[in-house]
Design goal:
This protein is an alpha+beta fold. Helices cover 38% and strands 20% of the residues. The protein has 10 helices and 15 strands.
């Protein structure tokens, strides 16, 4: 354990442990969204203090703590305010006061510093001073048991990692390496807060006027359903956006290839993984001729395939549209998927294609078009057109055929099977990738 002005007296240690436990209990059950929640617990969290750093000595002070609890390492920054000090809590946060703490400077009210506007700025000034000059306003964007994301003056964001793994955070590593490789379709990393045992946070530029990919696609679908015309003639035709999105995805894969290199692909291992996912979703699906055929075709591939450190779960909810084009804004792993592993770049392609069908179906369901054959056909036409445009944008990027198979059969076989796996992971019906034949 390291310390600054912090005393090792047993009563202070117990007090600090209790405050950290309170922070973990209060915010550890949060899944997503801006407001921390208090999970129901029967027993208090037991913590083992691993490291304590005094980040700011005077009041209001800042103390960073790494603590082991429940098999994870948590990172908590306590703000220490003198009793009676006026605090400016972020309006989106529930009660951030954790209790009382006494050190060499006297009694203090302990606060989760991320939810106090003044202390959040002071924290950024303490750990990444080159990025924190002149900051005045703070907003809470998201908070869960793994991360808190704050926006400062609408010019930068600060992602604070509540759970810390040894070594380099794979998301941070990917962001930094993509930036170094010249891929500029991400919010640029401006600074990384690194501790002795792992990455603790990252500062990035904030995107202005960004619209989620799902919102852009939904707007196109709603316009189509209102106009009831060919998707190519609809005012909100999504095909040009899908084409640009495919181009961006290919450029990302080429940058990842430059940054991390490639390995030989293993179609048999990919087939085993897809089969496992399908079996977990519904074992009866393995008896379907199309599912069984897709797995047989993938296992039987003789063409050489490559694996790279791809995104791994790239879909419309992970991208956003700005005036400058498409950006990849969410790299965090989802659904318990291993992160940072080498996979086929076509997994990202398959996942994006799958998301087109999923969103088209969900948007159609909102309008209850089950009995309207005309609108059902429009839904299918929109999906086909969007998928083809995405694939055209992806496959026409110079250099991409040195990374993904050039022949259509291999492309179709790998992508269809990987899309099947992604659909199975969501327990959804499979959407075939037959339009690859025309790519």
């Amino acid at each position: 354990m390291t310390s600054g002005t912090w005393s090792s007296a047993e009563d202070q240690r117990r007090s600090l442990s209790a405050l950290v436990a309170a922070a973990i209990e209060r915010y550890g059950g949060k899944s997503e969204g801006p407001q921390p929640q208090v999970p129901a617990r029967v027993e208090p969290v037991q913590v083992d203090l691993l490291q304590v750093d005094v980040l700011r000595r005077e009041r209001p002070g800042l103390v960073g703590v790494l603590a082991a609890a429940g098999g994870s390492v948590f990172h908590v920054v306590l703000g220490l305010r003198s009793p009676g000090d006026e605090a400016h809590f972020l309006p989106e946060a529930e009660e951030p006061i954790l209790g009382l703490y006494e050190d060499e400077d006297g009694l203090a009210v302990a606060i989760d510093a991320l939810f106090d506007a003044d202390l959040a700025i002071a924290l950024l000034q303490a750990v990444l001073p080159e990025q924190a000059s002149g900051l005045a306003h703070v907003r809470l964007l998201a908070a869960d048991d793994s991360m808190v994301r704050l926006a400062f003056d609408d010019r930068l964001t600060f992602s604070f990692f509540r759970r810390v793994a040894p070594g380099t955070n794979p998301v941070v590593d990917m962001l930094v390496k993509l930036d170094e490789a010249g891929f500029n379709h991400i919010p640029a990393p401006l600074g990384v807060w690194r501790g002795p045992s792992g990455d603790l946070g990252i500062v990035q530029e904030q995107l202005f006027g960004a619209s989620p990919g799902t919102a852009v696609a939904e707007s196109s679908l709603r316009d189509l359903y209102e106009s009831r015309c060919d998707p190519a003639e609809a005012g909100g035709d999504f095909a040009p956006e899908a084409h640009a999105l495919g181009t961006m995805t290919a450029r990302m894969h080429l940058a990842l290839d430059r940054a991390f290199g490639r390995r030989p692909g293993e179609p048999k291992a990919w087939a085993d993984e897809v089969e496992k996912l399908v079996s977990a979703a519904d074992p009866a699906l393995l008896d379907r001729p199309d599912v069984a055929g897709a797995l047989v075709d993938l296992r039987g591939l003789e063409a050489r395939c490559a694996s790279i450190r791809a995104h791994g779960d790239m879909h419309l909810a992970r991208v956003c549209r700005t005036e400058q084009g498409w950006y990849l804004w969410d790299l965090a792993p989802q659904g318990g998927e291993p992160y940072g592993r080498f996979v086929s770049p076509l997994l990202d392609v398959a996942t994006m294609l799958w998301s087109f069908g999923q969103l088209a179906g969900a948007t159609a369901a909102e309008r209850d078009i089950a009995g309207d054959e005309d609108l059902v056909e429009l839904e299918r036409a929109w999906e086909r057109r969007s998928r083809r445009a995405f694939l055209a944008g992806y496959l026409n990027v110079p250099g991409i055929h040195g990374l993904v198979p050039h022949d259509k059969y291999t492309l179709r076989t790998v992508t269809a099977a990987l899309e099947l796996g992604r659909a199975a992971r969501e327990r959804l019906e499979v959407s075939p990738a037959d339009e690859l034949a025309g790519a």
